[in-house]
Amino acid sequence: MLKGKSALVTGSTSGIGLAIARALAAQGANVTINGFGDKAAIEKERSGIEKEFGVKAVYSPADMTKPDEIAGMVHTAEKTFGSLDVLVNNAGIQFVAPIEEFPVEKWNQIIAINLSAAFHAVRAAVPGMKSRKWGRIISTASAHSLVASPFKVAYVSAKHGIAGLTKTVALEVATFGITCNCISPGYVWTPLVEKQIPDTMKARGMTAEQVKRDVLLAAQPTKEFVTVDEVASLAVYLCSDAAKAITGANLSIDGGWTAE
Length: 260
Ligand code: NAD
Hints:
By secondary structure, the protein is an alpha/beta fold. Helices cover 49% and strands 13% of the residues. It has a single domain, classed as NAD(P)-binding Rossmann-like Domain (Rossmann fold, 3-Layer(aba) Sandwich). The protein has helices at 15-26, 39-53, 67-81, 104-132, 153-173, 191-204, 208-216, 228-239; strands at residues 6-9, 30-34, 57-60, 86-89, 135-140, 178-185, 250-253. α3 packs parallel to α4 and α4 runs parallel beside α5 (153-173). The termini are far apart. The model has no long low-confidence stretch (mean pLDDT 97). Bound molecules: nicotinamide-adenine-dinucleotide.
């Protein structure tokens, strides 16, 4: 479905982003992966994608807090593959603390990575997509783009921002064959979720099991974590021609969380 096209997935050395990059490669797209982590592990993922799916895969170490590096990564992807057709804004971090103790630098970092990075990437990618009259822009938002939870002020603010960015960009590019949507997962079992358990234990005075059952899955009526492959399948669908009328949408994949 995506043969001859190129996709860039930010924050794809782990979790949801890696699953999306692999799923797009499985559809024939050449991919740019991005994110932090162990060099050898990243190289293993990169070369694994090439071998498994018969596409080209490159790695960009661009830091999503740095606007110049973000624009540079988009332009390098265009140069390397001749076009950038699918942009997935996925990189994200979390920090959990009551607002009066929330470190200012954590607020700034989360807004930069979880929100501003998408602005910089879309800004750089849209001219090429417009000139080719085809593009798919997808952002990994969150159920927290629709509802809040205590102690996550920066994350919830950034994700609500992604929903607004998505709608605005969708309107601007609607007549150019470009769609812009966000996907809003509930709790997906990834390193990001695992890492917030100790802080939530501290903030709420709970054990790890209590955090999983009474905080994380308490909100999710299915009582099951969403899987990274389920999220990736939705991203693949949004890239298909069948989804060309879906734009400006915020698609929940949250086991019913935001239906309550
Ligand atoms: P993860 O921690 O597994 O992956 C995050 C990725 O972002 C990694 O590749 C990491 O290296 C990268 N990253 C972090 N800071 C970066 C920076 N400054 N520059 C470049 N890359 C950076 O997390 P995940 O759970 O897969 O989360 C991916 C996205 O999905 C995030 O936007 C997150 O908010 C969103 N999300 C996750 C869940 C969940 O339950 N896991 C739910 C809803 C939304």
